[in-house]
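Much of our argument rests on the idea that a fold can be written as discrete symbols. Part of our work consisted of pairing the sequence of a single chain with a tokenised description of its backbone. No coordinates are needed to read the tokens, only the vocabulary itself. The record that follows shows the chain in one-letter code together with its fold in token form.
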Amino acid sequence: PPKATWQYLFERGTQRLRGRSAPPARPGSAALPAPAVEAAARRMFERDEDRRAEIVRERKMARDQRLQEESEHCTFHPRTNCADVTPAVDVIEACATLYERGRLSQDRLRERAMEVQRLRT
């Protein structure tokens, strides 16, 4: 019999469970060639990236749907920047300095006063 090592004793003790003892595998004999390993790794990586992107899309769609459902039940509908509402302040006046806005306001007051005088006469 071969030398009584722990490996031999283990294999003899488990031979009935495994059927017949297999010879030990040589390192590198069952290994795939480098290009095949690299191709398999790349496929696995690409599959993982696709799955990750799909999960991100699903989460975004779920978030958008949740926001849409929440907004359907909301009774508050603000009306901002509506086309039917004219701005109270002229655009030029909004960009003017404080002094220029004061002068424009005085000019408007004078024009209104003159129009009121014209209407009275």
Observations:
- The mean pLDDT is 78.
